[in-house]
Amino acid sequence: MLMRTDPFRELDRLAQQLTGPGTWSKPSAMPMDAYREDNEYVVAFDIPGVTADAIDIDVERNMLTVKAERRPVAKADDVQMELSERPLGIFSRQIVLADTLDTEHIQADYDAGVLTLRIPITERARPRKISIGVGSGRKEISG
Questions:
Q1: Cα–Cα distance between 67 and 50 in angstroms, integer?
Q2: Would you say 3 and 96 are in contact if contact means Cβ atoms under 8 Å apart?
Q3: To 5 degrees, how large is the angle CA 43–CA 47–CA 48?
Q4: Which of 52, 76, 84, 88 has the largest count of CB atoms under 10 Å?
Q5: 58 CB contacts (<8 Å, ≥6 apart)?
Q6: Minimal CA–CA distance to 72: which of 90, 53, 93, 97?
Q7: pLDDT at 86
Q8: How many Cβ atoms from other residues are within 10 Å of residue 108's Cβ?
Q9: Average pLDDT of the chain to the nearest whole number
Q10: What is the distance between the alpha carbons of residues 5 and 129, in angstroms, rounded to a whole number?
C-alpha cells in the first residue's frame, strides 16, 4: 500500500547521529513498521519518550505526515549529566498512501512509546467474488 521507499534510511540514521537532533526545518526520521491486517492497513512508529501532546498527525490528499518532538526532561540545578545518548529534538516521517485507503477514517493510538495508525481499506479495494454467466447457469470464480 505504500507508494515510496527510502533506500537511504540507514545512511540518514548515521548522518543524524553525527549531526545531532532534528529541527522543524530538518527533522530526524523515526523507525516504522507497515502491514495489512484484515481490512486495515496498520502503520506503527517508534517514538519512545514523547508525550501524546507532542505528536502531530496530518493527512493532505494522500500524504500522511507524522511529527513528534522529544523534549529534554527538566533537571534540578544540582544534577550533573554524566551521559546523554537519548536523542532529543524533532522526528518526522512522510508516507504517500495509496488511493485504496480511506484517509477520512484513520484511527491513532499511542501506547508504550509506539504510535499505531489504523487506516481502513476502501470497499473497492477489498477482494470479492465475481459470478460468471455461462449459458443458463451461473458459476462462481473466487480470486
A1: 11
A2: yes
A3: 135
A4: 88
A5: 64, 65
A6: 90
A7: 76
A8: 14
A9: 82
A10: 32
Rounded to 5°, the CA angle 114-73-28 comes to 50
Half-sphere exposure of 48 (CA within 13 A, CB side): 3
The reported pTM is 0.69
d(CA 115, CA 111) in angstroms, rounded, equals 7
117 has pLDDT over 70: yes
Measure the CA–CA gap between 143 and 88, rounded to whole angstroms: 49
> What local confidence, expressed as pLDDT, does residue 130 receive?
83
Q: Give the whole-angstrom CA distance, residue 86 versus residue 50.
A: 12
Task: Write down the pLDDT at residue 102.
Answer: 92
CA-CA distances (angstroms) from residue 93 to 14, 46, 58, 123, 125?
16, 11, 11, 27, 25
Phi, psi of 9 (to 5 degrees): -60, -45
Grid cell, residue 115, equals 504510535
H-helix or E-strand containing 9? helix 9-19
Contact (CB, 8 A) for 127 and 143? yes
Least confident of 3-7, 71-75, 77-81, 86-90: 3-7
